[in-house]
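TA notes, week 10

Several of you asked for a full example with nothing omitted. So below is the full record: C-alpha cells for the whole chain, then the designed sequence directly under it. When grading your own attempts, check the secondary structure regions first.
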C-alpha cells in the first residue's frame, strides 16, 4: 500500500541512487591495510585554521602496529596516533598511550583541539580530556602543509594505521569539552547529529573519501562486526542523504530548466522579431530594387535624351558654324579705297561707314542679288565719292535672294557696332589683311 502511493519515477530514482556504484557513501568507514603504502595524501589550505583547529574521528585498530598513525601534517604541525602515543602539535608531543587501553576491533572516538590566544592544545578520548599542553607563543599553522592520513608522512614502515577510520573532520574552531562529549555520546550510528559547528567544518569526511588513495584503502561498513542494527541505520542515513542530494540536484536541474525555458522563450521572441525585421528588410530591398530599376530606366532614357541632345547640339553647332561663315562678314576691302587706305579712321569716317548703305539701301529693295548685279553696282559705286562694301552681298545670306526690307536692315546695320571701335586705327594694308584674316579664321561675329 505504501509503495502504491509513491510515483514510479521516485522509485526508479531511489533504485539508481542506492545501487549506483559510483556514488560515495559518507557513512562508510575506510579500512587501511597493514601495508605502509596504504594511505591518503593531499595538500589542503590551512589558512582558515590560523586561530583555532579541532580534529575529531572514530578509529579502530585491526592489528598491532608499532605507531598506528591516524594522521600526520608535514613538518610535525599536527600528529595523532590511535594509541595516544605522539599526540603532537608544532613538534611538541604528548605521550598519552598509558591513558588509553586499546582493544583490537573496538571503536574509539578521539579529538584534538587548539586555540591561538590560549595556546592550549587538548586531546580527548571517548569524550574525556586525557591530556593538554601549551604551545609556543606566536606559533600558527603553516598554510600549505601536506596532510597524510593512515601513515606518518607516507610509506613509512611501522607507522601504518592498519585499521578502520570513520568520520574524520577538521573544524576551524576550538570545540569545547561539551561538544566533544556530545559527539561521543551520540555514537557511530548517528554521525553528524552531534555537530554544532557545521559552518566551521572545512575539511570534511565526505570529501576525504573522494581523495586519491595509495595502496590498499577500501570502503567498509562502520560496525559490521558488532551490530547489524547500527549498520542498517547507517545505510538508511546514506540513502536519506543521497535522496536529499538527489532532490537538491533535481531542484537545481528544475531551476536550470526554468532558466533554459526563459532563455528559449526570449530566443524565440528574438527569432520572431528578427524574422519580422528580415521580412521588412526584404520588402525594403524589393522596393529599393524597384527604385533602382526605375532609376536605371530613367538613366537609360536620360542617356538617350543626352545622345539626342548631343546630335541636335552638333547639328546646331554645324548650323551656327555655317551661319557664322555666311553672316556678318565685313568687307575689309572697303578700307583699301583712297579715302581710307593709310589714313587714320576719324569719327566722321566712322559715321560715313555706318551710313554708307542708308541712301542706297531702300533703292535696291526688290532686286534679286546676282554676281553680275553686284559687280555692276560695285563698278558704278567705285566712281562715286563713297565706296560701299558690295562684296557683302556675295554672302549666302544675300546672294540669289530678292532684297527685302529685313535684309536691307541687316545690310544697313552691319557696321553699326564695329565702326566706332575703328576710330583712331590707321588703315594700312597689313592692318586690313590682319582684320580680314581674324574675321575669316574665327568664323564669328566680331562686332561686340
Amino acid at each position: 500500500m505504501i509503495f502504491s502511493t509513491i510515483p514510479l519515477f521516485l522509485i526508479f530514482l531511489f533504485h539508481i541512487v542506492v545501487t549506483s556504484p559510483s556514488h560515495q557513501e559518507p557513512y562508510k568507514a575506510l579500512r587501511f591495510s597493514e601495508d605502509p603504502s596504504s594511505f591518503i595524501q593531499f595538500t589542503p589550505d590551512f589558512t582558515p585554521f590560523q586561530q583555532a583547529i579541532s580534529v575529531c574521528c572514530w578509529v579502530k585498530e585491526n592489528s598491532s602496529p608499532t605507531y598506528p598513525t591516524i594522521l600526520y601534517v608535514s613538518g610535525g604541525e599536527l600528529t595523532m596516533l590511535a594509541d595516544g602515543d605522539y599526540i603532537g602539535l608544532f613538534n611538541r608531543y604528548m605521550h598519552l598511550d598509558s591513558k588509553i587501553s586499546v582493544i583490537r576491533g573496538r571503536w574509539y572516538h578521539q579529538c584534538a583541539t587548539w586555540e591561538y590566544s590560549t595556546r592550549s592544545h587538548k586531546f580527548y578520548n571517548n569524550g574525556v580530556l586525557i591530556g593538554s599542553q601549551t604551545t609556543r607563543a606566536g606559533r600558527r599553522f603553516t598554510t600549505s602543509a601536506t596532510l597524510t592520513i593512515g601513515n606518518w608522512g607516507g610509506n613509512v614502515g611501522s607507522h601504518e594505521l592498519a585499521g578502520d577510520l570513520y568520520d574524520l573532520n577538521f573544524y576551524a574552531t576550538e570545540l569545547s569539552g561539551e561538544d566533544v562529549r556530545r559527539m561521543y555520546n551520540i555514537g557511530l550510528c548517528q554521525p553528524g547529529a552531534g555537530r554544532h559547528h557545521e559552518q566551521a567544518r572545512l575539511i570534511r569526511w565526505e570529501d576525504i573519501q573522494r581523495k586519491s588513495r595509495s595502496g590498499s584503502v577500501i570502503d567498509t561498513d562502520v560496525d559490521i562486526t558488532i551490530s547489524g542494527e547500527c549498520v542498517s541505520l547507517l545505510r538508511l542515513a546514506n540513502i536519506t542523504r543521497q535522496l536529499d542530494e538527489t532532490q537538491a540536484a533535481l531542484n537545481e536541474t528544475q531551476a536550470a530548466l526554468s532558466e533554459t525555458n526563459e532563455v528559449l522563450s526570449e530566443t524565440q521572441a528574438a527569432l520572431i522579431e528578427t524574422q519580422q525585421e528580415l521580412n521588412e528588410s526584404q520588402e525594403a530591398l524589393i522596393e529599393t530594387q524597384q527604385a533602382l530599376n526605375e532609376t536605371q530606366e530613367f538613366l537609360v532614357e536620360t542617356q538617350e535624351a543626352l545622345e539626342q541632345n548631343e546630335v541636335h547640339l552638333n547639328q546646331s553647332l554645324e548650323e551656327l558654324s555655317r551661319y557664322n561663315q555666311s553672316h556678318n562678314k565685313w568687307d575689309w576691302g572697303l578700307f583699301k579705297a583712297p579715302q581710307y587706305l593709310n589714313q587714320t579712321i576719324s569719327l566722321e569716317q566712322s559715321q560715313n561707314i555706318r551710313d554708307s548703305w542708308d541712301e542706297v539701301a531702300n533703292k535696291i529693295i526688290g532686286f534679286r542679288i546676282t554676281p553680275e548685279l553686284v559687280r555692276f553696282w560695285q563698278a558704278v559705286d567705285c566712281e562715286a565719292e563713297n565706296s560701299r562694301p558690295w562684296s557683302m552681298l556675295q554672302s549666302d545670306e544675300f546672294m540669289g535672294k530678292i532684297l527685302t526690307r529685313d535684309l536691307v536692315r541687316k545690310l544697313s546695320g552691319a557696321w553699326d557696332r564695329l565702326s566706332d571701335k575703328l576710330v583712331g586705327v590707321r588703315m594700312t594694308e597689313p592692318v586690313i589683311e590682319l582684320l580680314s584674316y581674324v574675321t575669316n579664321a574665327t568664323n564669328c561675329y566680331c562686332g561686340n
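Confidence is low (pLDDT under 50) at residues 1-6, 8-23, 443-448. Use that as a sanity check on your answer.
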